[in-house]
Amino acid sequence: MTIYRHGTEHPQFPQPQSQTPTQCQLTPQLFDFEYGDCNRKMPELMRARRACSRCPLAPDCLLWALVNKTLTPVGIFAGTTPRQRTKLRDRLAARLGPDWINVLAHQNRAARPSTAMWRQAS
Ligand code: SF4
Fold first, then answer.
1. Which residue's CA lies nearest to atom 6 of ligand 1?
2. What pTM was estimated for this model as a whole?
3. Which of 8, 25, 110, 114 could, after both became Cys, cross-link 59 (CB 3.0–4.6 A)?
């Protein structure tokens, strides 16, 4: 298993970029979310999820957030809460093994990473 230094981005899974500002860049306060915020911040969570559902970066954003765990301990990414991302990582590890990130990277050299990740997580 490859371990990346805390706070560094996995080289094969860079953060997706957009030519135009994304909603999380325009209204970052909506996407500010920690464990246990579900009841307190439900309206903001629902608005963030609606924004993510319309974002063209969502599949790559989710993959980036799952792989780069140390960079995404809080916040909403692709409509997911920190707790949901933990569950998705657990499912990927159960299906692909503890080195699931590198398994995905290997599987996706020829294909789009987000496509195969969605297949594996569902
Ligand atoms: S999908 Fe990702 S990049 Fe797009 S608005 Fe949501 S958090 Fe931002």
1. 52
2. 0.84
3. 114
Q: Token pair of 32, please? A: 């500010």
Q: Write out residues with Cβ below 6 Å of ligand 1.
A: 22-24, 31, 51-52, 55, 57-58, 61, 77-78
**pLDDT tens column, 54-71:** 999 999 999 999 999 999
Q: Using pLDDT thresholds of 50, 70 and 90, give the confidence band for residue 112.
A: low
Q: Amino acid letter at 94?
A: A
How many helices and strands in the chain, by DSSP H and E?
6, 0
